[in-house]
Amino acid sequence: MRPLIDKYTRSLDPSTGMFVIACAILMGLGLYKLDNAALWYDEAQTVFVAKGVLNTGWPTPHDGRQLIPEANVFYNDDMLWVEHPWLQFYVVALAFKLFGVSPVSARLFFVLIGFCTVLFLYRTVLRVYGNGIARLSSVLLLLSTPYMLHLRQCRYYAILGFSTVWMLWAYLKFERGERGALPHLIAAAVLIFYSNVASFFALMAGITLWIVVKGRYAGRWRALITMYGVIFVLTSPWFFYADLMNRRDTHGSWNVLEMISQMGHYMLDI
């Protein structure tokens, strides 16, 4: 045990120590006074549905005493929430189960997930640009005010950021032909879907376009078909249950086909 400790101690240069200390301080600030502000509208909505999970096991718009008074937009005829995927609600419900209901417990897991994103970003950038740029990227992310504000909210933002970086890391593994890349790509894509559906389609379109443009994967088409097939199987149940093809949203008429056509117009402008 002692030789192992000595080995890692010798490998720690002053710059490494400064990097670790800087990250620790910035992460500490991220945890500071999580209950300083009340839960705002979207956070309160997430917590309300999470309390429904605690009461029924399902994301319902009823916390046991009150009902969200919306005109059948946020939930379906089964009284289950379909405005957003359910992952964020179960994360908050788990936190409430472990630590009790409070603003701190509602936000805690999302902050920790945001910190994991920083570590994953370091590993991802390290593979491409080396140690110096990886450290700089991590510190800059922690110094980003918008990033810190988003990860301190009990909302899907932190999960989406983590899964996006995970997908980039997994794609680098796939591009280099490393083993185990496809399970990571599949898991990251599914996690993105159950965080935010619009981001899922945007990122999958980007990955697919890049694969087509690169044109280097002709010999691995079976693996790619398997990846897309598994992702479809794991995401389609909620997609069809929530009736995303033609369901109205809070802002009026909306469906996936209309969104795709609008994206085409934007691409032509570019």
Give an account of the 3D structure.
By secondary structure, this protein is mostly helical. It has one domain (40-269). Helix content is 70%, strand content 0%. It contains 12 helices and no strands. It has helices at residues 2-10, 14-31, 41-56, 87-99, 103-129, 131-143, 145-151, 157-175, 181-193, 197-214, 221-241, 256-269. The radius of gyration is 21 Å and the shape is globular. 27% of the residues are buried.
Could you give the topology of this structure?
Elements: H1 2-10, H2 14-31, H3 41-56, H4 87-99, H5 103-129, H6 131-143, H7 145-151, H8 157-175, H9 181-193, H10 197-214, H11 221-241, H12 256-269
Short descriptors:
270 residues; single chain; mainly alpha
Instruction: Give the uncertain stretches in residue-range form.
Output: none
Total beta strands: 0
What structural class do the secondary elements suggest? Answer: mainly alpha
Number of discrete helical segments: 12
Main β sheet profile: none
Radius of gyration: 21 Å
How would you describe the oligomerization state of the chains in this entry? Answer: single chain
Please tell me the total number of domains: 1
> Helix and strand succession?
HHHHHHHHHHHH
N-to-C terminal Cα separation, in Å?
59 Å
Strand content: under 5%
- Helix content range: 55-70%
Apparent shape:
globular
Mean pLDDT: 84
Task: Give a summary of the structure in a few sentences.
With 270 residues, the chain is mostly helical. The protein is built from twelve helices and no strands.
